[in-house]
Amino acid sequence: MSTLNETLAARVRSAFPALTRTLDGRPVAYFDGPGGTQVPQCVIDAMSDYLVHHNANDGWAFASSVETDAALRRARSAAAAFVNAASPDEILFGNNMTTLTFAIARAIGRALAPGDEIVVSDLDHHANIDPWVALARDYGAVIRHAPLVEGVPALDLDAFEALLGPRTRLVAIGLSSNAFGTINPVSRMARAAHRVGALVFVDAVHAAAHAPADVAELGADLLAFSAYKVYGPHVGVAYCRDDLMERLDFPRLAPQTPKGSRRAESGTLNHEGIVGTGAAIEFLAAACDTPGAPLRERLSATMARLSAEEEHVFRELVDGLRALPNVRLYEPPPDAPRHPTIAFTVDGRTPREVAAQLSDRDAIFVSHGNFYAATAVAKLVPASPEGVVRAGLAIYSTRDEVRRLAAAVAALH
């Protein structure tokens, strides 16, 4: 690492092999982090080392199996620190956040009575909507939708609180919008949910790369995120409060262990991916020079510094795009907190055309579509059936790249 006077982006960029990529001689600028971040070499090395030297199934007495058990425990402990869980046994691993959420929803659904209510948000990725909607079909649950403020990517909190009642069993909330960056007041919403005895499930997928998640502070009974959006491999991670995991009826095989996280996980896991997830969390913890401090403390230091630096870089991006007469931004209210993700359209161009031209002509990677936040995008951008263009910052994003993006959009005709 370099000196503390450098930005985090300058300190960490050399760790990412992908950042050496060029297209037609131009260095690639990655603004697709909301859909998946690039991976540092230390994560690649950890996964390779596991597969070459320790690959085995878990739970047996021979050396590589014992080493696998230890590696999975380390990764589980790292993930527990990442969300401030009380115990590594409260961490679940799976294919992705969506798959984990379907499994958790099924376990919760088995305890529902017809007419029990679940509140979902119209701002969310459908991975935090459709698993709960399925419970209406399978178990007779009633789904209530927390609406948006008219014309704005923000939740109507008064309308949300009016939905809560004696039959509310669960509230599903996104910590921040993957399409628009809006940060929801999850702690406030969780307190309201708990007052009526409901559980709170938090989708932290988009937020996890930008701020430290704290399940206690948020009031989350359950929380999920995706490692591949936090500089890791394609693995899903979930938190489930220990006493809740104990009583939920997770689908499991008859011989499955009744203790630890494995009571709620299915089959052989993606061991190399889990090892890589732990390595990604350790990478973040090491980005700030605080050697010797506990992992959670080091993570918090990195994320606090990253949040402050991203705010300045993102402001330059937003101001640059806002100044363009042919660009329309879709933003939270001016004083609302947000993570560094911007959605926009360009007059006379479909989102796909914009993304393709930025890639082909300028080596700038942005994403396009509705990003599975289909309800919110359809409500807020009805004139664009292809959705929006989305650009998001990551730990390696620089001011020079932001200026390149704004200039490239300005040059679209």
CATH architecture of the largest domain: 3-Layer(aba) Sandwich
Apparent shape: globular
Most strands sheet: 7 strands, mixed
Beta-strand level of the residues, as a percent range? 15-25%
CATH top level label of the largest domain: Alpha Beta
- What name is given to the CATH topology of the largest domain? Aspartate Aminotransferase, domain 2
Element order: H for helix, E for strand: HEEEHHEHEHEHEHEHEEHHHEEHEEHEH
Q: Stretches where pLDDT falls below 50 for ≥5 residues?
A: none
The span between the termini is 42 Å
Rg, Cα atoms, Å = 21 Å
- Given helix and strand content, the structural type is alpha/beta
Quote the average pLDDT: 95
Number of strands: 15
Number of helices: 14
Total separate domains: 2
Q: Please give the oligomerization state of what you see.
A: single chain
Verbal overview:
With 413 residues, the protein is an alpha/beta fold. It folds into two domains: 8-41 and 294-410, Aspartate Aminotransferase, domain 1 (Alpha-Beta Complex); 45-284, Type I PLP-dependent aspartate aminotransferase-like (Major domain) (Aspartate Aminotransferase, domain 2), CATH 3.40.640. The chain is 40% helix and 15% strand. It is built from 14 helices and 15 strands. The chain has helices at 8-12, 41-54, 63-83, 97-109, 130-139, 157-163, 186-195, 215-218, 242-247, 271-286, 295-322, 351-362, 374-380, 399-410, and strands at 22-23, 26-27, 29-30, 91-94, 117-121, 142-146, 168-174, 199-203, 222-226, 236-240, 327-330, 341-346, 364-365, 367-369, 388-392. The strands form four sheets. A seven-stranded mixed β-sheet has the order 4-10-9-8-7-5-6, with helices on both faces. Helix 7 links the parallel strand 7 (168-174) and strand 8 (199-203). Helix 2 (41-54) runs antiparallel to helix 10 and helix 11 (295-322) runs parallel beside helix 14. The two termini are 42 Å apart. The model has no long low-confidence stretch (mean pLDDT 95).
